[in-house]
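Q: What structure does this chain adopt?
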Amino acid sequence: MRLLASSLLLLCLSAYSEGTVISKEPGESIHLTCSSEECPTYSNEYHYLYLYYTIDEEAEVVFSNIKSERFSPRGKYESRTKLDIHNRTITLSNLTASDTGIYKCVYKKSSTEKITCSVYAVFITEKTPCSTVSPAVEPSPVLMYIIFVCIISVLAMWILMLLILPKVQQRFIKRRAMHAHQSSADNVYEIMRREEGAQVAAPIGLV
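A:
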């Protein structure tokens, strides 16, 4: 059950994040680089770098003032986070299952001007020894909630693509056909009016 839940979660995170998927085991480290092609350069004056963690709500992981090289991890990340200011890589060490989620780099010039780039879906698997048979352990409520939200999101996307969009397209085609038919009928009516006018005007010309 836990293996199935883990696989579903990894698949959902991959589809939802539209970024890089990273799978690690507890106790390991990850390196999140905030210097992809979508990220601003130093000359763009985006001096404030944030790393955010998201599952059901957004939480700040790291704040850094690149210009002054100030670095400030937040909350539970304070003692296990490092920043390489030169290549803008943030390292999170001693990972736990609660670190599973979506991480994104955000550069800010001001409170209103910001750029989001380098999105990562991080999945922390739990070690399961192969030599021993452990009793079945049910996934935690948080894990089940994440899987449920991901599955609903993926299903909604497929329903939109497979059911709603074709109907909208068919309706658009029918509407265009009706418009073309109406235009053709109007043209025929206009021609008949002209022919009738010509027939009425002909006797008057003869007199």
